[in-house]
Amino acid sequence: MNKYDVIIVGSGLGGLECGAILSKEGFNVCVLEKNELFGGCFQTYTRRGRLLDTGIHYVGSLGEGQIMNQYFRYFGIMDKLDIRRLDEACFDRICYNNTTYDFAMGHERFVDTLSEHFPTERENLRRYTSILKDVGNLINVDSLKKGLFTNGGFQYFEMSAAKTIADITSNPTLRNVLAGSSLLYGGVKEKSTFYHHGMVNNSYIEGAYRFVKGSMQVSDTLIEVIRSNGGTVRNNSEVTRIIVEDEQAKGVIVNGGERIEGRYIISNVHPKRTFELTDKSRSIRNAYLSRINSLENTYGVFTLYLIMKKDTYPYINRNTYIHGNKNVWYDKTEHIGTTRSCMISSQTSLLNGDFAEVISILTPMYMDELLEWENTTPEKRGDAYRRFKEKKANDILAFLAEQGISFDGQVEAQYTTTPLSYRDYTATVEGSAYGIIKNYKYPQAGFISSRTKIGNLLLTGQNLNLHGALGVTLTSMITCAGLVGEEYLAKKVGNA
Ligand SMILES: Cc1cc2nc3c(=O)[nH]c(=O)nc-3n(C[C@H](O)[C@H](O)[C@H](O)COP(=O)(O)OP(=O)(O)OC[C@H]3O[C@@H](n4cnc5c(N)ncnc54)[C@H](O)[C@@H]3O)c2cc1C
């Protein structure tokens, strides 16, 4: 069989969700993944028998009646997932200026908890959560039932996250605390939109959950859905060309040889990479390509995984964001080569839920720090790269020790990844963590439609609108609505 209704390039969350939606709708789909493991950033790999997540530490709006829960219910996977609700009293802890501030679940409780530190700011905190809710409510289950995936909200793309927070409160500490988890969206003070800040923060305040056995379970269950609907999902199948003839996408070339034909092609790969793979055509204008190629991407992430000795370090049912600077927003000029902020996330043990099996420590990193190795490939980057990673890991541990956090005697082994790992495994441009930056100053420039000028070539994934589990799922819906109709699909999802 080498002819399908829909060929999907890439098996990240976006590709698998498009495959699941369209196979449920009777399309004969084929998802092609270049790597051995499926899932892209929703991939979990094993070291020393422990599960290491590549790109998911927690997911929001997964509670009953919430939007992510509804999406997963529609896919038929919600009840198959092994998830754990983070601590309601504190799902995120922000450590700033030698004090800890807890983010509690539920908007009221969030206000109450922070008001203990900022008693005169209660009203401002109410205004803050109210505007977060406004952003979050742009996508909700009621709208789905009415046949709409989103209620617009473009105005929030034009609003600066930092400035909106500053307009809400003049208290400098509270401003930093509210922006304390901006690593979640690649936050940069001069660029980040309030849409991204609002969507991400609101979803976690609504309901924050962790995948107990790694995020790969989402990929595995979506693959089951596709296969049970007669679809094909193939690994080790790199799309090396998207064939365009007579201004129509005809199919793809896999691994430089095999030709597979499709009526539609959906690319889950970064748009810049997608158009590098696509045959030149009159329909895709140079001006469009120049725009795509010139768009900036978010910073990448350096991750230090600590494999903990059995039953030594308690599992902590929240994430911690540690800031060593007065300004919590990541500033490349100030931070490069040093570690002044990071996020810590624990993974519970499969055998004993009271102890952490793996602790992931994440800190922003741009490719600028890795230029020496930019022309290398995985496992062949040499000793200097290994030493660089070791030094970075030691810097992180020294920074944490300064902040009073130590893992001495409890670590069995450690592993690291850099933006180069993401560039080479998931083909994200410059190893960016979340893809194309949406800059509130130029909101139109960063907005990429799922439709292209080649009518049967569509885009999906984190670069289009919003990244993360929530953003990518919303975009998958919008991409597939292009084939089956928005009102029809939204109502189906809303009534699932
Ligand atoms: C370190 C890190 C931590 C994160 N933490 C969170 C979190 O806690 N919560 C959250 O919601 N989000 C988090 N995110 C973001 C989230 O993981 C991503 O936004 C999301 O998974 C991206 O999904 P995607 O489908 O757009 O792309 P990807 O996951 O990048 O998938 C793209 C897929 O395409 C494949 N591919 C590329 N080129 C080809 C080709 N030529 N042929 C075939 N296949 C190809 C790749 O191998 C990959 O499988 C995190 C991201 C990172 C990097």
What would you say this structure looks like, in words?
The protein folds into three domains: 3-82 and 213-296 and 441-494, FAD/NAD(P)-binding domain; 87-203, no CATH class; 299-433, no CATH class. The protein starts with a strand and ends with a helix. The strands form four sheets. Strands 1, 2, 9, 10, 11, 12 and 18 form a seven-stranded mixed beta sheet that branches. The chain has a seven-stranded mixed beta sheet with strand order 7-6-14-15-16-13-17, sandwiched between helices. A two-stranded antiparallel ribbon has the order 3-4. A hairpin with a 7-residue loop joins strand 15 and strand 16 (356-365). With 496 residues, the protein is of the alpha/beta class. 35% of the residues lie in helices and 21% in strands. The structure holds flavin-adenine dinucleotide (FAD). Residues 9-15, 32-35, 40-42, 55-59, 238-239, 268-269, 301, 303, 362, 422, 426-428, 433-434, 461-462, 467-469, 472 line the site of flavin-adenine dinucleotide. Flavin-adenine dinucleotide binds next to helix 1, strand 13, helix 15 and helix 17.
